[in-house]
Amino acid sequence: MIEPLLTSRMTAHPADSHTIARYEATGGYDALRKALKMKPEEIAAEVKASNLAGRGGAGFPTGVKWGFLAPATPRYLVINADESEPGTFKDRQLLERDPHQLVEGIVIAAYALNTNRAFVYIRGEYPRPARRLHAAIEEARTAGYIGDDILGSGFALEVTIHLGAGAYICGEETALLNSLEGLRGEPRIKPPFPAVAGLYAKPTIVNNVETISNMPWIVTHGGAAYDAIGPEGSRGTRLFSVSGHVERPGNYEIVMGMTWRDLIYDLGGGVRDGKALKCWIPGGASAPWLTPEHVDEPITIQACTRLGTMLGSGGIVVMDETTNVVAAALSLVRFFAHESCGQCTPCREGTSWLERILERILHGRGRMSDLDLLLDVSDNISPGLRWPPAMTTICPLGPSAVSPITSIMANFRDEVVAMIAGEVPAGV
Amino acid sequence: MSEMVKVTIDGVEVEVPAGELIIKAAQDHGTYIPRFCWHPRMEPVGMCRMCLVEVETPRGRGLITACTQRVAEGTVVHTKSEVVKKAQEGVLEFLLINHPLDCPVCDRGGECPLQDQTLSHGPGESRFVEEKRHFEKPIPISDLVMLDRERCILCARCTRFSDEISGDPLIEFLDRGNYTQVNTFPDEPFASYFSGNTVQICPVGALTATPYRFRARPWDLEAVESTCTMCSVGCRVSVQASQNQVLRLLAVDSEPVGHGWLCDKGRFGYEYLRSPARLETPLVRGDDGELREAAWGEALSVAAEGIKGVVARHGADAVAGLGGARSTNEEAYAFGKLLRGVIGTGNLDARMGDALDPALMATGEARGLIGDLERAKTVLVWGPDLKEELPVLYLRVRRAATALGATLVVIHPRVTGLDREATHVVRYRPGEGAALLDRLARGDGDLAAVREALTAGPVVAIVGRAGLTESPDLAAAVVAFAAGLPDASVLPVTRRGNVYGAVDMGMAPGLLPGRVLADQAGRDELAAAWGLSVPEPGRDADGILAGLADGSVRGLLLLGADPVAENPDRAAAVAGAEFVVSLDLFVNDSNRAADVILPVVGFSEVEGTVTNLEGRVQKVNRVAPGIGQSRQATEVLGDLAVLLGGSLGGPADALFKEISAVAPAYRDITWDGLAWSGGRDGILASNSGLSLPRPGSDIDSPAPGLALHLGRVLYDAGTMVTAGPSLAKLAARPMAHLHPDDAARFGIEDGGWAKVSAGSGEAVLPAAVDPSLAPGTVYVPFNFALALSGNSVEVSAATGPGDAP
């Protein structure tokens, strides 16, 4: 087991890991000094060599994404800190407990991307993380890490924090950009991708908090060192937020390739009260569920794709044998229906329809025809019900609401049938 | 011409312009892809998801919205595959689950895209057993538009229109997800001059127009295509009537003019046609001095005898005719022929003293088209506030400045609807325009950047009179300047309905039909064609009104004209005329004292041609009979001619044939050609050899104190607004706008009262402090029966209406 890349400081110094004094005392901003002596394209090359994959959900290789940035100026770096996926709370910890690591990452990334303006979009429900980051930015400005002439290098950067107003959809990068521009938080049609026409129609890179927090380590140790950690295709460490029916919920930074059994039973302390494991969500509410037959599968991007799901945002929700899966699915579908921005017909109408069908079933008013209806309505949002999902919508929010439906229908159809037939008590 | 690419649509290879949207390319080749949110005149948003098709990609077929995807060489599209069919049925089912399905009581029923596409592309039955979404309904979002949020399918056509096209984004999406709704902002109604367009483009019955709600079923409507004559833009319309009554106007998309949009005055103004105040019977002044109803025969003979009497006593030069700007070309032509050929007077004018030099309106020199705005690099607007006077031209200029990236220069005494989109805005005091033009031409000081902007051609210059106190010579001077700008297209604009057509028909003293100068040669040629003598040019509108005042003009014929409205200081002169005959739809301030009033038919009741500000000749058509005993004006004029010993030559189509023969600019235009090959775009009158008028050197008359700016507003106190209930309640109230410095000087507060005196008139008006004015300028909207005239004005504080300190 290697030393955690992102969380060792906060673990060793829980009282003051968020301060610049502690950060500098533990090697902070050395990576920036090194970076500013490199050429921007050399840093981008290191990031590409690291094979770091984005930690926001899609898992797209960061170096490749950076490579798409159009040459036009001005250009922008936007940090997506709108961590809203149910069961995901890793970025919160990075923001709260080690904000300078993110700030240093932002300055390095901005330098590598040749931009002088970065924005951090933090969900409005994260007041403490926002305050901590704000304080860190002010400290960094005072110390000369942000400003007109950073550490005498001539490189200038301004960082602006923007608080979201309570919409999950603003975590989708183009909805985030609309929101940042003061428009309704609605995803844009792609192409054009933000790297070509993003914020204010200028080339823009949108990266997740955890992704950018890796920059200091990669600059310090080199892309090759990062690429040496973990299995091919799933390099580096990742933070997973483990919640639900486990003994020790929390954030765990692990090297990918570990099995689900290791994470749930060893790190998470096992299913609570000694109950049996029923299923778990492997990567945020949008991800199709896994079941006990998968506990010895490795935690890698590739294995998840093979099993028809994803590591997504790293939010793992464990459900034990007592779980009413219809209620669980309803809870998730209701979330997506509530968070649908409303612009695409299938998502606006379909997610609410799914919610109401599940509600009916749960309250004892289900019909056997609902079994097919649930799947067919789902199919009209995500044609073919395959993974990765096809979409009749602009963004993947609609198809995300389908994941709980396909999960219960594939794994627990008997329970749904029994509930409709009145064989198990309805209600929650 | 854009490059063509080969595209395969449902297995058929077709050639389409590169970059065309799939939905458009398919439609142009006979494949209709269902859609709700896509509108060809607006930016695609891909929201409704109805137009999903499969497109082949290197990773296999993918579902994609045809309204957002552009074609490239080799694009392969499947619009009818099983996957597409399932997706489209799915979207329709989603759209219908919360739709009330109240088609039997919905205005849209029978012409509803949701209804139609459900039949063609939708599922047969609903599987939705839940309760539908509910909103309070319908809610008025303006005086003209009602919103039913349950019927709404959230396609964003209305919100995009108000944002993108009309530039008054007063409706928006509120809330999100399943609760998303269109609505106005609190306390801000959808007060747009263009709100009716949202009703027309709504693909369901969510937006309905209060004047039309529950008035008809679409299949009961009889429709004709026609041309709106509310202003001189000449938008194409479909006029729709039931049981002989016009119930609505819809815009018809024409590329050169309207782009499928209308202003609300054009769309809802038809209500005046059924006003109870409309004349149904001829009126003759009786021995008691009162107007009494009369039979047509009696009224016509009284009219003819009266005219004969004036001619016998004072000579034909003592007779004058005003009108034609609200008429068809045929009516104006017949009027002119009656006046010149039969009565023998050269005193005639279709302009009410508020228009432009007729030569400017008829010249071909540097003359442009509205469509030139599509390729303009620079647009100069120096003249009326287009949003108030020529609203759809405003939309076209706005499009040039926003969607097409033209540099816009606006010069006007106060803020106009286009200022927000303008790169340069210049203000001046009425009466000081020529001095400004001199400085602009030289690029003096702060005008250097404006002058520089005007060097980037093609330049489109839209030039007219900013207000009524301004000399028409200024517009002529600006046109002369603009004609010299690079690759210039000049549109000399003035507002009244068919005033260009009337001038083309010779209803101006210096011009004969067909843009011919009324010189000896022109008169000889016309006289030969008519077989009648043609008198020398006489007085124009100002001259006629002055003649009425000093007694040199004694007899007056009015054809749909109300000169007192434009010249309130001449009310007594018109009332005191020896003999007045008026052909009109209403009694008004000009014919109230007339000797004979002959009721004639109006818009939608007459077939004929009209000519817009570009010189575009289009048909107006008849869908309803006139009311009561009202008759076609051409017939009435013809009967008068016979009683006066002449003849005009028959009904409208025969008159138009004569126009084609007599009027050179109309030589290539035929009645049938207009109906068929001219079609939607009309036919342009050919450019005459008339050169630009030479403006006098003494244009400016700076006001010694405050300068008065009388500008028009769309909803004024004119008959077409006040005689229809829907628009009448929108009529603005007149106010005196003062620059903050002037307001302070006179101790007048915003919302207070000001006494305004100009010319022979004075009024006490609510005061508005208006920082957009040049200091020393007072703006009062025109046509509210205020007898203010001249460009010099005096102002003092007042404490209330009808009250002076």
Query: In angstroms, what is the radius of gyration of chain A?
Result: 22 Å
Could you give the count of β-strands of chain A?
8
End-to-end Cα distance of chain B: 68 Å
Instruction: Give the helix/strand class of chain B.
Output: alpha/beta
List the main descriptive attributes of the protein structure presented here.
heterodimer, A: 428 residues, alpha/beta, 4-stranded parallel beta sheet, 4-stranded mixed beta sheet, B: 805 residues, 7-stranded mixed beta sheet, 6-stranded mixed beta barrel, 36 strands, 27% helix
Short account of what is shown:
Chain A is α/β, with parallel strands linked by helices. Helices cover 43% and strands 11% of the residues of chain A.
Note down, in words, how this protein is organized.
The complex is a heterodimer of chains A (428) and B (805). Chain A has helices at residues 8-12, 20-25, 30-37, 40-50, 62-67, 90-97, 99-112, 127-142, 173-180, 209-213, 215-221, 223-227, 260-267, 301-306, 325-339, 345-362, 369-381, 397-411, 413-420, and strands at residues 76-81, 117-122, 158-163, 204-208, 237-244, 250-255, 277-281, 315-320. Chain A is of the alpha/beta class and 428 residues long. In chain A, helix 3 (30-37) runs parallel beside helix 7 (99-112), helix 6 runs parallel beside helix 8 (127-142) and helix 16 (345-362) packs antiparallel against helix 17. Chain A is globular and about 75 Å long. Chain B is 27% helix and 21% strand. In chain B, the strands form nine sheets. A seven-stranded mixed β-sheet of chain B has the order 15-14-27-26-25-16-17, sandwiched between helices. In chain B, strand 28 and strand 29 form a beta hairpin. The longest helix of chain B has 19 residues, at 296-314. The termini of chain B are far apart. The mean pLDDT of chain B is 94.
SSE arrangement:
The complex is a heterodimer of chains A (428) and B (805).
Chain A: H1 8-12, H2 20-25, H3 30-37, H4 40-50, H5 62-67, E1 76-81, H6 90-97, H7 99-112, E2 117-122, H8 127-142, E3 158-163, H9 173-180, E4 204-208, H10 209-213, H11 215-221, H12 223-227, E5 237-244, E6 250-255, H13 260-267, E7 277-281, H14 301-306, E8 315-320, H15 325-339, H16 345-362, H17 369-381, H18 397-411, H19 413-420
Parallel strand pairs in A: 1-2, 1-4, 2-3, 5-8
Antiparallel strand pairs in A: 5-6, 7-8
Helix pairs in contact in A: 3-7, 3-11, 4-7, 6-7, 6-8, 15-16, 15-18, 16-17, 16-18, 17-18
Chain B: E1 4-9, E2 12-17, H1 22-28, E3 52-57, E4 60-65, E5 76-78, H2 82-97, H3 113-121, E6 139-140, E7 145-147, H4 157-165, E8 171-174, E9 181-184, H5 195-201, E10 207-209, E11 222-227, E12 236-242, E13 245-251, H6 264-268, E14 283-285, E15 291-293, H7 296-314, E16 319-323, H8 329-343, E17 348-349, H9 358-362, E18 378-382, H10 386-389, H11 391-402, E19 407-411, E20 424-426, H12 433-442, H13 448-453, E21 459-464, H14 472-483, E22 489-493, H15 499-504, E23 511-512, E24 516-517, H16 520-530, H17 541-550, E25 555-559, H18 563-566, H19 571-575, E26 579-584, E27 596-599, E28 608-611, E29 616-620, H20 633-643, H21 652-662, H22 671-675, E30 683-684, E31 706-711, H23 719-722, H24 725-728, E32 736-738, H25 740-746, E33 753-758, E34 761-769, E35 777-781, E36 792-798
